[in-house]
Amino acid sequence: MSMTARSSTPSPAQQTAAWGAVFSMSLCVAMLIAAEFMPVSLLTPIADGLGATEGQTGQAVSISGFFAVAASLLMTTLAGRLNRKWVLLTITTLMLISLALMASAPSFGVLMLSRALLGLCIGGFWSLATAVIMRLVDAEHVARALAIMYTGQAIAAAFAAPIGSYLGGIIGWRGVFWILVPIVAVNLIWQWAALPSLPANQRQTFRSLMDVLKRPYFARGIAAVVFCFSGAFAMFTYLRPFLEGVTGVDVTMLTAMFLVLGCAGFLGTWAGGRLANRHVVRLLQAVPLLMGLVTLGLLGFGERPVVVAVLLAIWGAMNTVMSIAWMAWLSQNLDDAPEAAGSLVVAAIQAAILLGAAFGGSLLDHFDIQATFLGSVALSALSLLLVGSGRRLLKVG
Asked: Are 18 and 32 in contact (CB under 8 A)?
């Protein structure tokens, strides 16, 4: 079986099973995204509950990014020739443990431990996800399968934050994380039943990672990825303090704002799945441009809730497109080395989330929320400059 496509035409039963596996991965994505970013909507109560500042809590939440970077770089090498199905099942089990630790954390240190463990899960899953998708479905269906998998991201973005902020006011932030535990347990069982055996085709080494990174178009793409995602999360991590302090929303309105942002992600998923095959460069250009303009718009019109809601809808759509577009770029331009390229792209994304959140938190603690958002705009602008016309991001031949 090739890493880029199936070697023969699958039977209808095999096709059905393959798409069932794709949907099980979509639920896993939803749980990973919810676990990683739900604390954004609970940032203030978590900080109050653990006796920390919002900036410190935002950076502690983002510690998962540091461990995700390490896991994404090490996963395909340490996994060796282990069957990828069992690697993914192990990752889901660790996510279950990390959520239980998060919900019961008695101190800031235990919170950081739970986030570190979650980071290992995030990096490990995403480093393998695109390569696994490329093995589950035919090459012409990869963009569609990626869009389905990222529907899990859209669902989490749509409902995790608003539900988290709403339920957090009723059952507390710990109760919110306890709710996720049984869902992840169900997902573990589904993955076990749905995923086919996925023997490793070849052993990845650090040399194979470096060989991919030496490709000029890929190195440029990695730099653009870092600035794109760090710009997005320098703003997103501290969106709640902005909405509370500048827009002046209460918990109910805050929930509605996050719901608007998240629901727009479904539009982004649809657009990404439809356009990524033929217009990936246009998407890579549109994402940092529109995200930067939205952030400037929030600074200019942050006191007008209706305008803020519209701007957040645009941002939410671009947030989903961002992931689909970069993974589609990977599948189209690095189809000969999807695991190695996937490891490096995921490492870049997670490093960007970590750096973006840390950068934004530092600006928030030392200056104000306006400085945080301006920093986000600057990072998005650098990403747009690196993408440029897109020609230097494409494989030749």
From this structure: no
Phi then psi for residue 38, to 5 deg, are: -60, -35
* DSSP class per residue in 160-177: HHHHHHHHHHHHHHHHHH
Chain Cα centroid distance, residue 84: 21
Residues 6+ apart with CB under 8 A from 364: 54, 55, 58, 238, 241, 371, 372
pLDDT digits (tens, 9 = 90+) for 240-292: 889 988 888 887 888 788 888 878 888 888 888 788 778 888 999 999 999 99
Report the half-sphere exposure of 57 (CA within 13 A, side-chain side).
Answer: 22
Q: Is the pTM of this model over 0.85?
A: no
- Written as six digits, the tokens of 87 are 């690697």
Whole-angstrom distance, CA of residue 129 vs CA of residue 100 = 24
User: What pLDDT is recorded for position 278?
Assistant: 81
**What single letter denotes the amino acid at residue 301?**
F
Tell me, what's the pLDDT at 337? 76
- For residue 250, the Cα-to-chain-centroid distance in whole angstroms is 27
Low-confidence ranges of the chain (pLDDT < 50): 1-8, 397
- Name the token pair of 142: 């990869």
Nearest CA-CA partner of 17 in 144, 194, 158: 194
CB 387 within 8 A of CB 235: no
Transcribe 271-318 into DSSP letters: HHHHHHHHHHHHHHHHHHHHHHHHHHHHHHHTT-HHHHHHHHHHHHHH
Distance CA(249)–CA(240), nearest Å, equals: 9
Residue type, 50: L
pLDDT tens track for 68-117: 888 877 776 777 677 888 889 999 999 999 999 988 877 777 888 888 89
Q: All domains of the chain, ordered by start, with CATH?
A: 12-393 (1.20.1250.20)
What is residue 2's predicted lDDT score, i.e. its pLDDT?
38
